[in-house]
Write a structure and sequence with these properties.
- The protein has 342 residues and is mostly helical.
- It has one domain: Rhopdopsin 7-helix transmembrane proteins (Up-down Bundle), CATH 1.20.1070.
- Helix 4 packs antiparallel against helix 6.
- The termini are far apart.
- GO terms for molecular function: G protein-coupled receptor activity.
């Protein structure tokens, strides 16, 4: 395959920029996203309010949910405004929007990849990771939190290239550095696709290893301690696979189409990419807290109690009213009998 290059760039951005979605399509996307935003942001903040930060095996999910809360509370409103208005009106806003969008979503991808690797180590090499907590737990998280915003401030805001922004397009059509082959491939393949494929591969490995272990367990005598260890590893793996797969669904199709566009530009693929797949990462962010809370029984119970408490109060008030009416009727009957007797 040959790259569609011109002056060391490809024409993917030109293809994407040629697709401006209709007002009806924008409004449909707007209402779908805005309906999901409120419950998802509430669920994310509720989890963070009661999150068990001292539990090392799930602590990194808290770091991921913090990023998710910022996406839903800070970046998504900009996208919703664009979808509702059809434009962000001022080119001066484009660099800030792109930097925020790229930094948060890339940080989310990095954290999910590291969650997959770390969860694998917790399942199969727990003592090893506990002995190297700084290196394999806190160190990577701190690095990712610094690397992503600094990288995109550097290559979007400070990098010397001529931006070609269109305020009527999603993220203004993209940054100008993506038109340079080397820098564009470094970011998209090195930071994006490689991380997403690592997440997918680790999830596949964990799934296969669990099937193999399950087969061995059926043929061996398992102690009570061994069964507890197995149940624990199943829960850890199920949480990883469930959350990891929404990242795979949200990002892998989008990344594959972009990669194809880099080598063989297609107007049809560009239309599909800019109109549909570009918004899949938002649905991944919106679904994340609902999937995460399924594996947090204590927080799930608190949330259930929160929503059930008003219903319980209404039921109790209704029962009290019935008892009051019943007592009043009994009192009236007693008084009637007394009057009749006299």
């Amino acid at each position: 395959m040959e790259l569609n290059t011109s002056n060391s760039s490809w024409n993917i951005s030109d293809d994407m920029n040629s697709s401006i979605i209709s007002p009806l399509e924008r409004k449909i996307k707007f209402y779908i996203l805005v309906i999901l935003q409120g419950p998802s942001l509430f669920c994310t903040l509720f989890i963070l309010r009661y999150f068990r930060w001292r539990h090392l095996q799930t602590q990194i999910y808290g770091f991921l949910l913090i990023v998710n809360a910022v996406i839903l509370g800070c970046e998504l409103p900009i996208t919703l405004s664009y979808l509702y208005e059809g434009s962000i009106y001022f080119e001066s806003r484009c660099s800030a929007w792109i930097t925020l969008n790229y930094s948060l979503f890339q940080l989310s991808i990095f954290l999910m990849t590291w969650i997959s690797i770390q969860r694998y180590l917790f399942i199969y090499h727990e003592q090893f990771i506990l002995r190297h907590m700084i290196l394999f737990h806190y160190g990577p998280v701190i690095f990712f939190y610094l690397y992503c915003p600094l990288l995109y401030i550097g290559i979007v805001v400070l990098y010397k290239c001529q931006p070609i922004y269109d305020v009527n397009l999603y993220i203004c059509g993209g940054p100008c550095y993506s038109l340079e082959l080397s820098l564009g491939l470094f970011d998209w393949v090195g930071n994006g696709i490689s991380m997403e494929m690592t997440t997918l591969i680790v999830n596949v490995i964990v799934t296969i290893r669990h099937f193999i272990q399950r087969y061995r367990m059926k043929r061996a005598i398992i102690t009570a301690d061994g069964r507890r260890q197995w149940n624990r590893s199943v829960k850890l793996a199920a949480q990883l696979i469930a959350i990891g797969m929404i990242y795979v669904v949200g990002w892998v199709p989008y990344s594959i189409i972009v990669l194809i566009q880099m080598f063989q530009s297609s107007q049809n693929l560009a239309n599909i990419l800019s109109r549909f797949f570009a918004y899949l990462p938002y649905f991944q962010a919106l679904m994340l807290p609902f999937v995460a809370i399924l594996f947090m029984p204590e927080i799930k119970e608190r949330l259930f109690t929160l929503f059930m408490f008003p219903c319980i109060n209404v039921k109790r008030r209704h029962q009290n009213q019935i008892h009051t009416i019943h007592n009043q009727i009994n009192t009236t009957n007693v008084q009637s009998r007394t009057i009749t007797h006299h």
